[in-house]
Write a structure and sequence with these properties.
The protein has 4 helices and 5 strands. It is of the alpha+beta class.
Length: 111
Amino acid sequence: SACLVGSEMCIRDRFYFASAKAELAAGANEALADVVAGVKGGKRAVISGYHDATGGAELNAELAKKRALAVQAALSALGVAEEKVELKKPEQLQADGSNAEARRVEVILVD
């Protein structure tokens, strides 16, 4: 989906995870194709991990980080250069929406 970072347009992709898991779902590489194309087109990928409302805060924070790292590793395996990827801890790790929607990583493509 489209978004704004400052005054610049960006593209946001979301990748969802099973409860208490940090493994990417089957087909994730195909879903990451848009991100790879954007980076090859000159953008940077900013990755943020989130968690749902279940479980302890410390465990959830670590899980959100592991999810972001899983997406970063998948992008690296798809040939995205490390300097084109930034991990960004969101101000609020617990995402909005249902628990299923909250267990996600967002990737934003920025200039």
